[in-house]
């Protein structure tokens, strides 16, 4: 949860100057070009034709970069400010999939298509925030070039039938649903389920008073839900990342955070301490396995790895709460 607050130290996109917008565009094109070359290197042995396509895409990114640098040189000189996507709030983060070997061809295609869509969104928003006619024209041209790119599947030599188009539309809708609802909701469920374990079980074993424990769990769950919901909504307006409405993401994140904590707080409405605690522990295991399932089902995380990470983390936090409560 605290890492979400630290992200708020990033610069909001709408505070960037025209020079900084150009600098951000330059660094983004450089990064994307390197990513495409990394994909080409990872695919060249098994998929040499696909690797060639990614080399061509990297060359396109380099052309965009050169045009942006030339514009910066004309307007602001040779010194380009150091600003990257991780310095700007709401900018879509690139996961280092290109470091994983062997590369999955379907995953690479999906990622590359998302990268082109994100670049289009960036140039559209950037062009709205500059007043210089020459810069605005360049950004608008680059946006149209990104938008007019043929679909990656077509560029790889695949032919689309009407059913394929419908499948692509359904996949786009599914991806948007994951970004707007499932990903924020999963983050909230993980935070609510795990972060409240220590205070709830510490209070339980320290007091052995079920009502007081319930009040601690209720306050921790509601407080965490409000905090996480506001943070999710505030740190990304969705315009650059394409993650959708900040209000919808905030509600999904905050609600699931609260429910994740309430799941093992509600059993303490039962007056008998050991009955309530046994049920709460059982609920915790159900929550953790549900998180692992969602990660596997929607985020394509291998189930055993997701289960190990979630259960281990939950067990450590639970143990910390019990030890503190018995201190």
Automatic annotation (TrEMBL):
Keywords assigned by UniProt, alphabetized: Membrane, Transmembrane, Transmembrane helix
Keyword field contains Signal: no
GO molecular function: manganese ion transmembrane transporter activity; metal ion binding; oxidoreductase activity
Topology versus the membrane: Multi-pass membrane protein
Any one Gene Ontology BP term: intracellular manganese ion homeostasis
A GO term from the CC aspect: endomembrane system
Domain of life of the source: Bacteria
Location of the protein in the cell: Endomembrane system
Membrane-crossing residue ranges in chain numbering: 276-294, 306-325
Transmembrane helix as UniProt keyword: yes
Every Rubrerythrin diiron-binding domain range: 20-156
UniProt-listed InterPro entries: Ccc1_fam, Ferritin-like, Ferritin-like_SF, Rr_diiron-bd_dom, UCP035918_rubreryth/DUF125
PANTHER family for the chain: BLR7895 PROTEIN, RUBRERYTHRIN SUBFAMILY
Name of this protein: Rubrerythrin family protein
Organism per entry: Phyllobacterium phragmitis
Native organism taxonomy: Bacteria, Pseudomonadati, Pseudomonadota, Alphaproteobacteria, Hyphomicrobiales
């Amino acid at each position: 949860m605290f890492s979400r607050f630290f992200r708020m130290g990033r610069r909001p996109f709408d505070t960037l100057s025209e020079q900084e917008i150009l600098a951000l565009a330059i660094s983004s094109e450089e990064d994307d070009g390197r990513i495409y070359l990394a994909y080409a290197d990872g695919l060249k042995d098994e998929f040499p034709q696909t690797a060639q396509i990614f080399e061509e895409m990297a060359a396109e990114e380099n052309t965009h970069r050169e045009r942006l640098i030339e514009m910066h040189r004309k307007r602001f000189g040779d010194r380009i400010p150091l600003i990257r996507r991780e310095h700007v709030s709401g900018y879509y983060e690139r996961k280092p999939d290109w470091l994983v070997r062997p590369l999955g061809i379907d995953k690479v295609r999906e990622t590359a298509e998302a990268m082109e869509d994100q670049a289009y969104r960036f140039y559209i928003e950037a062009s709205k925030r500059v007043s210089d006619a020459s810069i605005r024209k360049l950004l608008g041209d680059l946006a149209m070039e990104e938008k007019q790119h043929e679909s990656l599947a077509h560029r790889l030599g695949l032919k689309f039938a009407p059913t394929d188009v419908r499948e692509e539309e359904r996949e786009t809708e599914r991806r948007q649903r994951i970004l707007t609802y499932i990903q924020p909701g999963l983050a909230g469920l993980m935070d609510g389920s795990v972060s409240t374990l220590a205070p709830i079980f510490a209070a339980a074993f320290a007091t052995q008073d079920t009502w007081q424990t319930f009040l601690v769990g209720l306050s921790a769950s509601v407080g965490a839900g409000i905090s996480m919901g506001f943070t999710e909504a505030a740190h990304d307006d969705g315009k650059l990342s394409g993650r959708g409405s900040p209000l919808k993401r905030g509600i999904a994140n905050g609600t699931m955070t609260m429910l994740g904590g309430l799941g093992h707080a509600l059993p303490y409405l039962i007056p008998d301490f050991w009955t309530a605690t046994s049920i709460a522990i059982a609920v915790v295991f159900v929550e953790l396995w549900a998180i692992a399932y969602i990660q596997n089902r929607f985020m394509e995380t291998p189930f055993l790895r997701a289960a190990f990470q979630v259960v281990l983390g939950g067990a450590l936090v639970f143990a910390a709460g019990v030890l503190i409560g018995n201190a």
